[in-house]
What we know:
By secondary structure, the chain is α/β, with parallel strands linked by helices. It has helices at about 15-35, 60-70, 130-140, 170-180, 190, 195-200, 215-230, 245-255, and strands at about 50-55, 75-80, 95-100, 115-120, 140-155, 160, 205-210, 260-265, 265-275.
Amino acid sequence: MASEPTQRPDYFFKRGVQSSVRLNYNHWLMKELTGYLIHPAIPANKPDLWVADLGSGTNIWALEVAAHLPETARIDGFDISGDQYAPATSRPSNLHLHIQDCFKPFSSEFVGAFDVVYARFWLCLVNNPDASDLLKNMISLLNPGGYLQWLEPLPLSVRGVHPSAEGSNTAIDRLVSHLHKPTENKTYDWIGKLPELFCEQGLEVIAADRILFPKHLRHAWHHSLLVAFEDRAQGDTPSDNGEDQKIWISQLMEAFANGSYIDSPFICVVGRKKSC
Length: 276
Ligand SMILES: C[S@@+](CC[C@H](N)C(=O)[O-])C[C@H]1O[C@@H](n2cnc3c(N)ncnc32)[C@H](O)[C@@H]1O
């Protein structure tokens, strides 16, 4: 029996300068982590390649992809809000931006139009029952033979590591629990199951890469996590005035400075829409 759809979480990050800097920082961190913008298994050398960036944010991925592809390629960014979009004067003419809820059907002009569809960091926006619906909608954009590339952290695999084997730290324990399940209604199981979900929706899985955070980028990822907590538009509960969170963030900074760290793997899944 199909499970009941849950209330989808709202986007709970702010959209100011710090939020945009965080998205850009994460982009370059992910590029350093993976070593690519478009996965090397995806043939991206067609001069008239059509690429879609879903949840385009500050468009940083789309802008960099546009800078690397010939001007004859076309890149479309979709986001529910254009507040963080790059101004027209900083965009190439082959980058087209749209306001679109990616959980809702796309306009017919985009259906079956794209060679590459790209998604990243949807974890805060998706619960198990929504993942297949979102995936179907993403796949609707692909032409036959087109590729979907989806990169996510694997929060259920996160663990805290301490300088001594028997060590522990309350603030780190709280962070790990929060990353495993931030709220009662939140489920992250869908992320580890992305390869199966791709198959269920008829995609041929070309790659399902589990990526470990290398030691030299650990500290940078800690900064991203801390800024993400500072960047939330509201706390976990209506009565949360942010004080508890500020104390927690300073405890985490101390724990990181004392050598504890978060082991946080990622997954990049690439699927190909079958041609027939
Ligand atoms: C999905 S993340 C990705 C950010 C960026 N592309 C990256 O890779 O780091 C955040 C973006 O998703 C957008 N977003 C949230 N809900 C959305 C929805 N239902 N449809 C489309 N975009 C959405 C937010 O407005 C925000 O710009």
